[in-house]
Amino acid sequence: MDVLNAADEVLPRPPAGMERPLFFMWILSFRAWRE
After folding, report:
1. Residue 31 contacts residue 3 (beta carbons within 8 Å)
2. CA-CA distance, 6 to 30, in Å (whole number)?
3. How far is Cα 27 from Cα 10, in angstroms, rounded to an integer?
4. How many Cα atoms occupy the beta-carbon half-sphere of 1 within 13 Å?
5. Distances (CA, A) of 7 to 16, 30, 35
6. Is 23 exposed, middle or buried (0-12, 13-18, 19+ CB in 10 A)?
7. Whether the Cβ atoms of residue 14 and residue 23 lie closer than 8 Å to each other
8. pLDDT in tens, the chain (35 residues)
9. Is the preceding peptide bond at 15 cis, omega within 30 degrees of 0?
10. Which of 27, 31, 33 is nearest to 14 (CA)?
């Protein structure tokens, strides 16, 4: 879960209702783009 923790440090927190699953999906897309 360190991916989500790292994202919290560098990204603004999403609205409460959108943290999951949209934020998690965004993280997966971001990681795929970085690789």
Report:
1. yes
2. 12
3. 12
4. 0
5. 15, 10, 16
6. middle
7. yes
8. 566 666 666 666 665 555 567 777 888 888 888 77
9. no
10. 27
Identify the pLDDT of residue 31: 83
Amino acid at 10: V
- Six-digit token pair at 28? 């997966």
Residues 6 or more apart whose CB falls under 8 angstroms from that of 27 comprise 3, 4, 7
Q: How far apart are alpha carbons 5 and 11 in whole angstroms?
A: 10
Assign 12 to helix, strand or coil.
Answer: coil
Q: With 0.70 as the threshold, say if the pTM is over it.
A: no
